[in-house]
Amino acid sequence: MATSAPVHPVDEVPPARQLAAFGLQHVLAMYAGAVAVPLIVGGAMKLSPADLAYLITADLLVCGIATLIQCVGFWRFGVRLPIMQGCTFAAVSPMVLIGTTGGGLPAIYGSVIVAGLAIVLLAPVFGRLLRFFPPLVTGTVILVIGISLLPVAGNWAAGGAGSSDFGKPKNLALAAFVLAVVLGVQRFAPVFLSRIAVLIGIVVGLAVAVPFGFTDFGGVGDADWVGVSTPFHFGAPAFEASAIISMLVVALVCMTETTGDFIAVGEMTGRKVDRRSLSDGLRADGLSTVLGGVFNTFPYTAYAQNVGLVGMTRVRSRWVVAVAGGILVVLGLLPKLGAVVAAVPAPVLGGAGLVMFGTVAASGLRTLARVDFEDNHNLTVVAVSVAMGVLPVGVPTIYEKFPDSFQTVMNSGISAGCVTAIVLNLLFNHLPGRVGSPVAEPVGLAAGGVKDGVEKPREEVV
Hints:
2 strands, 462 residues
């Protein structure tokens, strides 16, 4: 009697009830982070509540489409693993800079489209370049991302930059209350609830903010019940060289981060990522980013919090995450939901943002914990890269006398830190050192004394 071949856990389809529950769990785990990017960018550009709501619903819609492409896949697009997609925080600072220095949303979307096309083209060859992006580089970049975004959370907690009541004790008290709720849920709530502590904190904070007059839901009544994001809603894209250069740096960072997420999920699910599947996954990232530029949203990448959720729950089916993508598509077609999210007061977001962005920085430290810092120059690489990344955050006007193209790249702490980390890693770990120095031989796969987590390709480390 013939027997069918066993189905790999990644390809198994759980019962409908479990699909819905696990899929919703993935949505809840990433929802707060997903809406944070359009809130940050739209808020910095002082968009109207209606435009801000439009950005949020467009983002949720493309988040869902990007997740479906990555999990289900078609032809050579999609890694076909349980990977949740969302807007990358790496692009926040460059996009805010582009949008507020005269280029506006059209310049942002032009640079996003070019970056997406670049990812599609670079996907087949990126696997060969992994040795130049070890945890030393990626950990430093992730750490700088978290540090660069913390001032955003601070401005939110104080009431929002430019607000008339900025810094009032009531704003900071509300932010502190939300932070306490998030920490309390993480510490004392059941496991399932602790995984959505940030979202619970926002909901509870909103419930407290309403009776104290923190909120304005006027935009909710004006929003439509159903709406579809149309291409180039904010105008035809503008292709400015300085903005494109900055976004290409972000694309390189995203490819590096996504590669690590793919490899980690492959290990968790028992389906290791090879060069072809890695290329397919990165190609899907590029396609989703192009769609983001067309449909009024931003660059997309794998969400690390959902990678952790796969490891914690041990639910390995990619169809669970595909259902989560479908839920996001539905949410993206409901503009009233976007208007509700846009009405969340800044202090509530500030309390949650301190946890979210601090978690990003902590993730970078966790990656750097795998790096060897003995008898080499790796500490110097991290120290100088973090310093260059924090410099424009602490002194925003430091490069104001430089050309605009230079400012677009270096005024972003993320871009500055990333470029510095890549260059210094090449200088200290991939070029021949002087005789008697800690790095006296060319670094490579065949070089003697190779340190784990530093010179090895990232896939070997993971």
